[in-house]
Amino acid sequence: MALFVEVAKRKSFSQAAAALGMPISSLSRRITLFESAIGLRLLDRTTRKLVLTSYGEAYLGQATRLVEEAQRTFDDMVSQAKGPSGQLKIAVPPDFWVLRHLSGIISEFSREHENIQVHVDLKPPPVDLVGDNYDLSIAIEEPRETSLIVRKVGDLENALFASRSYLLAQGRPEHPQQLPQHRMILPAQGSSAKWVLTRSGETATVVVNGPVSCNSLSLARQFAVSGQGITSANLINVERDLISGKLERVLPDWWLPPTPVYIVTTSRLLPAKARTFIDFATRRLSAILIAVARGTPVPDSFAADPRKEHVPQPIFAVRS
């Protein structure tokens, strides 16, 4: 049953065999024997693809629940005896705040749980949790796959920023309607973008233009630091630039829509190693996001020092 679930989830004998650490021929033979014992064909195999039959579709849901429950029961027994253990494979976005803050969270988690080996991949979305065999991912875009389990951790607050040299040369906009007169560093490919800004219940929608666009938050930040124009950015990504004076807040009373932060898994029934990390990371990330939203500087050691985790644990970041 467990082998069938692995093959059906991945829709590939080769990927399932690699994940299970067994030869493809052995896996195929075991599935064939399983189908013979049931008396129904669960998988249709062709040279190009593998698809579930109607019987396979109906059986997969029930089998998945049973297999995951059995695996979780086993993991719980092992964790009671030895504590959570095993390799935990995580995918995270290659953003500056992840490199700065999440690295500290993972380091602290690893020190507290010596029997869990954490592997982290910097992976831009979309992430194939099943195909790449990840236990979980941290995402700033809600996955399109409805089968995935999404837990919201908090919000990254977004605003506008520019260097002092740009603002001295081009002037400071006093209202969002003045933004089209400025050079914008656009967060997606194209020569224009529509931005919606809010201030105390007031909303302003503007179409902005710019000579530079990119799909990297870190690169857009660097363009802004070098004086190329105004950029939208997560507050947590530029907090050090604000402190050092490399960047300044533009239209400080106005906010762009926040970016949600999610932890994504393939199932609600998680092994102890994944549940332990999710609980730990949720507490740490929530505290960091709340501190940033309140305008409190967050030192690099914040995530790794539990004594600094003095912020209560409401799970969603609030605006200052």
Main beta sheet strand tally, sense and closure:
9 strands, mixed
Shape: elongated
Q: What's the CATH topology name of the largest domain?
A: D-Maltodextrin-Binding Protein, domain 2
Number of helices: 9
Radius of gyration: 24 Å
Give the overall pLDDT as a whole number. Answer: 85
SSE order: HHHEEHEHEEEHEEEEHEHEEH
Count of distinct strands? 13
Strand content: 15-25%
Distance between the termini: 52 Å
At CATH level 2, the architecture of the largest domain is 3-Layer(aba) Sandwich
The helical percent reads 25-40%
Structural class: alpha/beta
For the record, the CATH class of the largest domain is Alpha Beta
Q: What is the H level of CATH, i.e. the homologous superfamily of the largest domain?
A: Periplasmic binding protein-like II
Number of domains: 3
Low-confidence stretches: 301-320
Pfam family, one: HTH_1
Domain HTH lysR-type: 1-53
Family: Belongs to the LysR transcriptional regulatory family.
Keywords: DNA-binding, Transcription, Transcription regulation
Write structural notes for this entry.
This is LysR family transcriptional regulator. Belongs to the LysR transcriptional regulatory family. The protein is of the alpha/beta class and 320 residues long. It has three domains: 2-81, Orthogonal Bundle (Arc Repressor Mutant, subunit A), CATH 1.10.10; 84-154 and 259-308, D-Maltodextrin-Binding Protein, domain 2; 157-257, D-Maltodextrin-Binding Protein, domain 2, CATH 3.40.190. The protein contains nine helices and 13 strands. The chain has helices at residues 2-10, 13-20, 24-38, 54-82, 96-112, 164-170, 217-225, 235-244, 272-293; strands spanning 43-45, 50-52, 86-92, 116-122, 136-139, 149-162, 184-186, 192-199, 202-209, 212-213, 230-234, 248-250, 256-265. Strands 3, 4, 5, 6, 7, 10, 11, 12 and 13 form a nine-stranded mixed beta sheet that branches. The chain has a two-stranded antiparallel ribbon with strand order 1-2. Strand 1 and strand 2 form a beta hairpin. Helix 1 crosses helix 2. The termini are far apart. 30% of the residues are buried. Mean pLDDT is 85; it is low at 301-320.
